[in-house]
């Protein structure tokens, strides 16, 4: 793996549910101008569209399990192609399994590309539980808040469009534990996978969101001398 110029970067953000991947990806879009690509958001949009596919995806997400690898990879490949994003992306929530990472590597190499950086946000299980336990989302625009650490200006309402904030179905306490189990079993092995391919930049996610962004930017800069 090699770090490139930040104006054309292919970055993967890894970390447990609630580590702050979505929050950081949105902040880094402003700092780096790299588009945020979230498979969780893509799947939630598919659910909102309804139909048989939406209902099926909703059942999978609601159970805390993962959408099948082949389907997930196809959604990502179609999206990156349609939006012409093969040179610039900040992937949040993908890849999430070793088979997805293998398929993604071959999608990239087929196009003569490779990842520039894998950033892993570390957060203890205790902090993950506190983060997910207080997460509120806007059902309309997808903005994410937290009851304690990142509350909206008006209690319960989205700053951007005034919609009433909701708790994601998969952020219910028993679902959170299942998602953490899924993370340990299926996503954590990705750290080893990417460590073998090159360097994973590990960043401590235990700080306010601005400080974590500064740490990620520093890790990306350091990596440019790899
Ligand atoms: P979190 O923000 O808690 O990490 P996401 O919003 O990334 O969660 O994902 C929500 C759900 O969407 C996942 O629990 C899973 O069901 C589905 N999902 C998202 N990304 C993937 C993926 N790469 N592979 C399979 N399922 C996924
Ligand atoms: P992920 O995408 O990794 O699942 P999110 O970005 O959705 O994580 O963050 C999970 C919850 O924690 C959200 O409610 C978010 O507002 C909050 N949060 C994110 N980063 C921080 C931080 N650095 N400090 C405190 N709370 C945070």
Overview of this structure, please?
There is one protein chain. With 226 residues, the chain is an alpha/beta fold. It has one domain: Rossmann fold, CATH 3.40.50. The chain contains 9 helices and 7 strands. The strands form 2 sheets. A 5-stranded parallel sheet has the order 2-3-1-4-7. A two-stranded antiparallel sheet has the order 5-6. Helix 1 (21-32) crosses helix 9 (209-223) and helix 2 crosses helix 3. The longest helix is centred in the C-terminal third of the chain and has 15 residues, at 173-187. It is globular, with a radius of gyration of 17 Å. It starts with 9 loop residues before the first strand and ends with a helix. Bound molecules: adenosine-5'-diphosphate (2 copies).
Instruction: State the domain count.
Output: 1
Low-confidence stretches: 1-7
Q: Percentage of helical residues?
A: 40-55%
The percentage of residues in β strands lies in 5-15%
Give the name of the CATH architecture: 3-Layer(aba) Sandwich
Count of individual beta strands: 7
Query: Count of DSSP helices?
Result: 9
Strands in their spatial order, largest beta sheet: 2-3-1-4-7
Overall 3D shape: globular
**Ligand catalogue:** adenosine-5'-diphosphate
Major sheet: size, sense and barrel closure? 5 strands, parallel
Secondary structure layout:
Blueprint: E1 10-14, H1 21-32, E2 36-38, H2 39-49, H3 51-63, H4 69-82, E3 89-92, H5 98-110, E4 117-122, H6 125-133, E5 135-137, E6 144-146, H7 173-187, H8 189-197, E7 200-204, H9 209-223
Helix pairs in contact: 1-9, 2-3, 4-5
The structure holds adenosine-5'-diphosphate (2 copies).
